[in-house]
């Protein structure tokens, strides 16, 4: 129900905005994406014989037909300013371009920061008041963690000493018992996310099949000078 409310709140027109045919096309495509994600997940956990029978209906065909009827495939032309899309504001551009942005909290494995793990930092950031830009500086190191920045955590920025020096790595995989959807080392769904100078890695290896380094469902997100390393399905862009 939470996902449903978020969808209806986002897609509903307001006095100053309206839902265009392109918006409708995006939401319909999202519905198809989520259906296929469910189907793939049931296959990966060997529950397909039971669950796919329940899902064997004409919902997919109905959505596909609606997509064709809506015919909102004409993509709006993206406009840029100084090399950045216009929706990316000047204050955020300055954060990317400055060498040492002002940070709210520091992660350091050697104990010199506020926290020694990224997960503890994200948990602390979730309790902050307000929804403005929140900058987390991750000092150099290899962080063996699985991180999730959820829907309610908006405008989070992760910045580091550079993608060669700050690495977030995990080993979840389909071969290890996860679904592709849940195998990601880092999951981001909160809108307005920015990552600067970080490597996202999954080292499950080729024998373990799908193993995601980063899954992003974050709207209006930016990954600047970042690395993505893995063997299969390394970068997974999904619906919000």
UniProtKB/TrEMBL annotation:
Its main location: secreted. GO terms for molecular function: lyase activity; pectinesterase activity; pectinesterase inhibitor activity. Residues 14-69 form the Pectinesterase inhibitor domain. It is found in: Secreted, Cell wall. InterPro entries: Invertase/methylesterase_inhib, Pectin_lyas_fold, Pectin_lyase_fold/virulence, Pectinesterase_cat, Pectinesterase_inhib_dom, Pectinesterase_Tyr_AS. The keyword Secreted applies. It catalyses: [(1->4)-alpha-D-galacturonosyl methyl ester](n) + n H2O = [(1->4)-alpha-D-galacturonosyl](n) + n methanol + n H(+). Keywords: Aspartyl esterase, Cell wall, Cell wall biogenesis/degradation, Hydrolase, Lyase, Secreted. Its EC number is 3.1.1.11. This is Pectinesterase. The lineage of its organism: Eukaryota, Viridiplantae, Streptophyta, Embryophyta, Tracheophyta.
């Amino acid at each position: 129900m939470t996902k449903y409310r978020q969808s209806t709140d986002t897609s509903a027109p307001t006095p100053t905005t309206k839902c265009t045919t392109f918006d409708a096309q995006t939401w319909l495509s999202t519905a198809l994406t989520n259906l296929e994600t469910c189907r793939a997940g049931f296959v990966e956990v060997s529950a397909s014989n039971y669950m796919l029978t329940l899902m064997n209906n004409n919902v997919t065909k109905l959505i596909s037909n609606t997509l064709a009827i809506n015919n909102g495939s004409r993509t709006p032309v993206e406009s840029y300013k100084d090399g950045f899309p216009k929706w990316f504001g000047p204050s955020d551009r300055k954060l990317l371009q400055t060498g040492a942005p002002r940070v709210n909290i520091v992660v350091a494995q050697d104990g010199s920061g506020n926290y020694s793990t990224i997960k503890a930092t994200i948990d602390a950031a979730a309790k902050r008041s307000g929804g403005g830009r929140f900058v987390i500086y991750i000092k150099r190191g290899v962080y063996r963690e699985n991180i999730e920045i959820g829907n309610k955590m908006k405008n989070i920025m992760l910045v580091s000493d550079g993608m060669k020096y700050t690495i977030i790595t995990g080993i979840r995989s389909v071969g290890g018992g996860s679904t592709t959807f849940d195998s990601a080392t880092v999951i981001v769904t909160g809108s307005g996310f920015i990552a600067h100078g970080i490597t996202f890695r999954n080292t499950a290896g080729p024998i373990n099949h799908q193993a995601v380094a980063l899954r992003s469902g974050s709207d209006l997100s930016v990954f600047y000078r970042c690395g993505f390393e893995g063997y299969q399905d390394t970068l997974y862009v999904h619906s919000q």
